[in-house]
Amino acid sequence: MTARLIDGVKLAAVIREEVAQRAAVLTAHGVRPGLAVIVVGSDPASQVYVRNKVAACEKAGLHSVLEAYPASMTQDELLNRVKALNAEPTIHGILVQLPLPAHIDAHLVIETIAAAKDVDGFHVSNAGLLMTGKPLFRPCTPYGVMKMLESEHVEIRGAVAVIIGASNIVGKPMAMLLQSAGATVTICNSKTRDLAWHTRHADIVVVATGKPRMVDGSMIKPGAVVIDVGINRLPDGKLCGDVDFDSAKEVASAITPVPGGVGPMTIAMLLVNTIEAAERALASK
To answer: Can you give the pLDDT at residue 1?
Structure first.
């Protein structure tokens, strides 16, 4: 068996076109969706992510504001800037790029973002709404994964899903979304005993650990759907995921590539969340 590729680039392009159409409707009603992106410090990966997000916004007809600050920015300065953006009516979404410098409390910063503008879906109130099955914003990466599964007509209801990685950004919200869709979900982590036993029983495997090629074909149930959230740069400069793609694709029925899989979908769903925030703002007028 050779798995079919779940093409995140192609699907993201379709979603961005839908976003552009919705943005045009909003603009015609006098509301141009606006996203503010704040980056503090000079983390190379953050710089790349931020540039991609801003470019995607502009291409889809959204108004984007990029605010770059030095690593010496104080926590109070950042909190005050977030509060100012909370009050800015032309900004519908606020994203503070992580990681932040060590002297800044990332949790406090996220909680300072107005829940109605928390397009990352990380605010505690949004996490709580997701937990109760009534999400305001779905975190972008898990949201993108759900769209990929939907596009492949993967039967989630009744499926066994295993998630490797228990972060607040991917693992936990991914579990909530899959569970809400009717899957039986197991979250594995670095302390899980006999990880391969769990993955070999899974119909859907989502890997988000940041460890290159930690899951290989021997750990995959024949015919399973494999979603690789990780992206790692090897010593030779090449990119790879958390899944050993070459061996896994010979066992899985469908698999996401790295790059070109989940990454483009994360940005696409950020645009969707921003559009939804702008639509709610218009409706509340």
So the answer is: 64
Catalytic residue, chosen from 21, 43, 47, 53, is: 53
Select which of 120, 228, 242, 244 is catalytic: 120
Asked if 97 is an active-site residue, the reply is yes
- pLDDT tens for each residue of 68-122: 999 999 999 999 999 999 999 999 999 999 999 999 999 999 999 999 999 999 9
Q: Where are the beta strands (DSSP E) in 119-224?
A: 160-164, 184-188, 204-207
**Is 120 a known active-site residue?**
yes
In sequence order, which residues have a C-beta less than 8 Å from that of residue 78 and are 6 or more positions away? 38, 40, 69, 96, 100, 104, 109
Where do the domains of the chain lie, and which CATH numbers do they carry? 30-116 (3.40.50.10860), 140-263 (3.40.50.720)
